[in-house]
Amino acid sequence: MVRAWYMDDSLDDQRLEHQLSPPRSVSLEDLAKNTGVMYYKLDPKKYEEEGKLSRIKEERGYNYMDVIQVSPEKMHNYEERIKVFFEEHLHTDEEIRFITEGSGYFDVRDQEDHWIRIEVTPGDLIILPAGIYHRFTLDTKNYIKAMRLFTGEPVWTPHNRPADNMEARKNYVLQQSKGFMVK
C-alpha cells in the first residue's frame, strides 16, 4: 500500500525519505481530498487478468501507453534526465503512472505549498491531476519501471514553476479551493 508524508526541508540526497521529525503521515483519503491525487492498487504481475487496469483505462479514456525504465543502466543521459524530473513543474494533462518494478517518490504540493512525498512501489497506480505542481525522483535503489498512460497523443511537456497563469493551473487551484471528490 502506498505511503505518503509531509517532507522535511533538508537539502540532503533527494532519494532519501525526508520524513519530518516526528513523522507526519498523510492518508490516501486526505491526499485525494486535498490534492486531487488518485491511487489504485493493482497486481503488478497479473494486472491484465485482474481487469482493474482495463476498467480504469476505459473509465478515464486512456488510449495510449508506453513503458519507461529509469536507472543509470537503462536511461540515456540518466543524470540529466533525473534532474529534469526533480524540477518542480506541472503538466496540462493528468500524469498517470503504474509501477511494475522498482520504486521512487512523487512529491506534490498541498494547499499551503508544503511538500507531500508519495512513495510508489510495484502495483501502485497514481494519477496526478493536470495543473498540480509536482516532481519525481528515484529512491536509493535507483530503479523504477512504470507504465505511462495517456489520453490521445502523449504529451510530456513539463511547465516549470512558476506557471500560475496557465489555464491548467488556474483550473487546478479553483478545484482545490472547492475540494476534490473522493471515491
Walk across the major sheet and give the strand order.
2-8-5-10-3
User: What's the story with the biggest beta sheet?
Assistant: 5 strands, antiparallel
How many E-type strands?
11
Task: Name the helicity range.
Answer: 10-25%
Helix and strand string, N-terminal first?
Answer: EHEHHEHEEEEEEEEH
Instruction: Kindly estimate the percentage of residues that lie in beta strands according to DSSP.
Output: 25-35%
- Arithmetic mean of pLDDT: 96
User: What is the structural class?
Assistant: alpha+beta
Distance between the termini: 17 Å
Low-confidence segments: none
- How many distinct helices? 5
Shape: globular
**In terms of quaternary structure, what is this?**
single chain
- Radius of gyration (CA) equals 16 Å
Pathway: Amino-acid biosynthesis; L-methionine biosynthesis via salvage pathway; L-methionine from S-methyl-5-thio-alpha-D-ribose 1-phosphate: step 5/6
Cofactor: Fe(2+); Ni(2+)
Binding site for Ni(2+): 89, 91, 95, 134
Main location: membrane
Structure write-up:
It is built from 5 helices and 11 strands; from the N terminus they run E-H-E-H-H-E-H-E-E-E-E-E-E-E-E-H. With 183 residues, it is of the alpha+beta class. Strands 2-8-5-10-3 form a 5-stranded antiparallel β-sheet, with helices on one face. A hairpin with a 5-residue loop joins strand 6 (104-109) and strand 7 (115-120). It starts with a strand and ends in a 5-residue tail after the last helix.
